[in-house]
Amino acid sequence: MTDKPQSSPTRRDVLRVLGVAALAGVGATAGCKQAGTDARAHTSAHQGDPSTSSSASGGSAVAGSDGPANSGARPTTPHATTPHASSPHTSSPRPTAKPQPAPTVRRGTLLGAGSHAEDGRRRTYVSLIDLDQPVLRPRTIETGFFGHGVAFDPIDPSRALLFEKHGPGCCELDLVAGKLRHRVPTTPERQFYGHGVFTADGRLLLATETIVGDGSKRGVIVVRDGRTLKPLGTFPSYGEAPHDCRLIDEGRTLVVTNGGGTHASGHVPNVAYIDVATRQLKERVPFDTPRVNAGHLAISRGGDLVVVSAPRDGLDLKASDVHGAISFRPAGASGMLKTAKVALINRMRAETLSVAIQEKLGVVAATSPGGNLVSFWDLKTGKLMSTLDTFAQPRGVTVTLDGAFFALTWGGGASLALIDTKTLRPLPGGSLKRAWMSGSHVYVHPLRAKGA
């Protein structure tokens, strides 16, 4: 690995960093970052209050283009771009070019995992699309496993960690050079369970893992050095089969969804609020039904909590009363997460997968692949606002950096659509037939904002 520090933190350093003062502030989605996220989706810069850009109705619009994939071409692997070196100064100075302003990032770079069969083998990769380009063209980084969640380094925007869901896969990526830097192992008795998050200063990485060697599915949060990625310790997730996670309260609290295992196990799915400094449980929030798990979450800067769920393992998925769910707990409320009780819930077949918040407008977007459904909800009341059923198998959803669009991936071909966050309707021309993002999540990252 490159850019290693002279020495790794000692345990005393770790405890200091885990202290309240050192964890002040957390930059967002797109990995699992602090409140203000537009969800897991989630963007890496989506923690802020997204603006409602005047381009929301299409102005300088993204030119919908399938790029090379439109004719069936394979996704291309990116390579680093190196600026031309300036000419050395001589006694006969040449005219100098007028300095150009840095490119404006309005929508950001979309990132998501993908997989498809090719030439008799299964390819797995991360796909990236610069949404601020007039023509949308994906580029890919081979990963060797089907990725799930992403944690973005808050100090180095070119660096990200990709996690497998229920497996040994984890790797560090260079998003600018388009390379896999190296793989990150776990122990034989544990599996990565999908997500992780850096502390605001980038010194530590916290990841959800599950003990599978003894069959208990006991959840742990594994603490790693943010630079070397070497394990430094663990603390409990306060539940079984933990999955998603976010840092809130300026980094003082880690919020974790604990799936709960099978329906027959007796374990209760919950959302755990954990004091990072003391590693003690602050609050455990159950659901008002035992028939759904705790899947992905989104939290507003004010503390409004939204969780999407799949049916508990062990239930008959063919039964009419077995479906996914979306649950709400407004900021300041106490008690259980309340699942939405509307007729539409029966269309959330199999699971409700991805969730994103456009906080300024107070709109929540959720995807239900099995029901070919995208639903939009009021963040404060939990009431259904609108639906779209024009996208087959919708999967990942997130919010562009300017807050103008929900970016949605859908279909067996891993297509991309942009949905106006005000009208909740697709942007004409804002689509891509092959985005190569077939995973559960997409993220928006301000990669070009740092000159990458």
Descriptive labels:
single chain; 452 residues; mainly beta; Methylamine Dehydrogenase, Chain H; 8-stranded antiparallel β-sheet; 4-stranded antiparallel β-sheet; 28 strands; 2% helix; 39% strand; globular
Total number of distinct structural domains: 1
Q: Alpha-carbon distance between the termini?
A: 19 Å
User: Roughly what percent helix?
Assistant: under 10%
Low-confidence stretches: 1-8, 19-73, 77-95
CATH architecture: 7 Propeller
The geometry reads as globular
CATH-defined fold name:
Methylamine Dehydrogenase, Chain H
Radius of gyration, in angstroms, nearest whole number: 21 Å
The chain-level structural class is mainly beta
Strand content: 35-45%
Number of helices: 1
